């Protein structure tokens, strides 16, 4: 098992990243980029990235709050016990879907330099805030993304110019969208709008709603649901196994 720390230059500065390779076997492996939630970089998302890597992927985890500067790591159960917007809001204002998509260019360029990356097509997974970022990245770099998994993402189809659904006509990746029940950031009307955009653009996708709360995939969240998280892991690995085989 290898866990590297690398810094990748972007148009706006230096983005610290963690890179994970499988605990067993030898590369090259197809690459997957993990787009973090608003809780930022912390042990839980690093552990999730290693778990994904152990399934046969080289995983790149960028700190998309790099424009803010040093922070945390945060403990979500403590943050969500109060007004999380006071803690996370200032960091979240430093990035958005378009900025994350722009950051993805240098991330892809970095992956191109590694001889342990198989092929040119990559996968992406995003959680909460990162879901829209992963989808926007796939729409911005359509020739590079084969598959995207979105878990409890919010604001995927809005009237804002950074709304991910606007990039649906450019997407070539297969998309899996896992929504949470009673999620104010992604109500049924928004899901319908998002899925309509995907269908109209001919995007291959599968969408479903989990009987769980927003954030259920994250083991350090107070709403973590082990059974539904394992269901999510199974769906994600099936997607990547189909669209981005571990031995390509």
TrEMBL record:
Superkingdom classification of source: Bacteria
GO MF terms held by the record: hydrolase activity
Protein name (Swiss-Prot/TrEMBL): Dienelactone hydrolase family protein
Domain Dienelactone hydrolase: 19-243
Keywords: Hydrolase
InterPro entries, per database record: AB_hydrolase_fold, Dienelactn_hydro, Dienelactone_hydrolase-like
Pfam families referenced in this protein's UniProt entry, alphabetically: DLH
């Amino acid at each position: 098992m290898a866990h590297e720390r690398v810094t990748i230059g972007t148009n706006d500065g230096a983005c610290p990243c963690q890179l994970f390779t499988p605990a067993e076997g030898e590369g090259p492996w197809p690459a997957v980029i993990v787009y973090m939630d608003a809780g930022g970089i912390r042990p839980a998302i690093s552990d999730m990235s290693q778990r994904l890597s152990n399934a046969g992927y080289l995983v790149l985890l960028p700190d998309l709050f790099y424009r803010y500067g040093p922070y945390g790591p945060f403990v979500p159960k403590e943050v969500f016990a109060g007004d999380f917007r006071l803690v996370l809001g200032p960091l979240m204002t430093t990035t958005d879907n378009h900025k994350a998509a722009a950051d993805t260019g240098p991330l892809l360029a970095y992956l191109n330099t590694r001889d342990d990356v198989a092929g040119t097509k990559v996968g992406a997974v995003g959680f909460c805030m990162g879901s829209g970022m992963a989808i926007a990245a796939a729409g911005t770099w359509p020739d590079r993304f084969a598959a995207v998994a979105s878990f409890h993402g919010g604001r995927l189809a809005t009237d804002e110019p950074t709304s991910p659904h606007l990039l649906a006509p450019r997407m070539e990746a297969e998309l899996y969208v896992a929504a949470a029940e009673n999620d104010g950031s992604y109500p049924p009307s928004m899901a319908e709008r998002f899925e309509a955009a995907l269908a109209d653009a001919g995007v291959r996708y599968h969408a479903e709603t989990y009987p769980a709360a927003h954030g259920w995939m994250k083991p350090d969240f107070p709403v973590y649901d082990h059974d539904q998280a394992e269901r999510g892991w199974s769906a994600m690995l099936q997607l990547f196994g189909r669209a981005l085989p571990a031995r390509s």
